[in-house]
Amino acid sequence: MNIQFRKVIHTGKAPNTQINRNAHIKKGTGQAFEDVLEQVRRENSHVKFSKHARERINTRNLELSEGDMDKICRALELAEKKGVKDSLVIVGNMALIVNIPSKTIVTAMDGNGSKENVFTNIDGAVII
What we know:
Blueprint: H1 33-44, E1 48-49, H2 51-59, H3 66-81, E2 86-91, E3 94-99, E4 104-110, E5 124-127
Parallel strand pairs: 1-4, 2-5
Antiparallel strand pairs: 2-3, 3-4
């Protein structure tokens, strides 16, 4: 049995191959790169609800309309542009605490939910 060893030197450079920059687009879809980029942006902009927030929304009989969700998404965009990490978002008579980087609503309350109207552990507020 004859075993051969080759010395392999890694230069850190990728091999000289042509990269297909549109490999993620299925052939024949005819989608432009801008359309795919917009779709990815929309998919990544969805707001999530923590388990705690879902429980609070249910137990407090809070309702969020599609319009409310649009407003919340807009509030998150504004807070993110200002560098806010944890924000109080007030929509109508609802108060939401939102973690901006993860786009997660942490808790929710109605106008009567916070007895003293004191909110802690936030670094910004958006009132819609």
